[in-house]
């Protein structure tokens, strides 16, 4: 069960990380379109699990590795954006959100 504070911080991180991926995506990730679908934050606000949707999804694992290699840089940029609102910028853990691929697969099976 998420507290009100957790949900507010999750929404804040999702919005700001989405902007970071939109602005820095061309430089860091080779023009891949990366969107933040969900952010789940721990009760102590120390760890944020960030679920990413990557398009095109053929080389999503490789793109995720590039994102993970740039985690410190992303966290630094995030700290400049949310530094006045959060005491501690949470550690970031990135995962692939494959729910869109799952929905597409179900749709193909039904038709």
TrEMBL record:
It is found in: Cytoplasm. Gene3D superfamilies: 3.30.300.20. Pfam families: RBFA. The keyword Cytoplasm applies. One of several proteins that assist in the late maturation steps of the functional core of the 30S ribosomal subunit. Associates with free 30S ribosomal subunits (but not with 30S subunits that are part of 70S ribosomes or polysomes). Required for efficient processing of 16S rRNA. May interact with the 5'-terminal helix region of 16S rRNA. Belongs to the RbfA family. This is Ribosome-binding factor A.
């Amino acid at each position: 069960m998420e507290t009100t504070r957790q949900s507010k911080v999750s929404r804040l991180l999702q919005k700001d990380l989405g902007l970071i991926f939109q602005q820095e995506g061309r430089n860091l990730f080779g023009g891949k379109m990366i969107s933040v679908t969900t952010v789940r934050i721990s009760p102590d606000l120390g760890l944020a699990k960030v679920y990413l949707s990557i398009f095109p999804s053929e080389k999503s694992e490789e793109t995720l590795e590039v994102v993970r290699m740039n985690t410190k840089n992303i966290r630094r940029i995030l700290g400049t954006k949310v530094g006045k609102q959060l005491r501690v910028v949470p550690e970031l853990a990135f995962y692939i959100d494959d729910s869109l691929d799952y929905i597409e697969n179900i749709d193909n099976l039904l038709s």
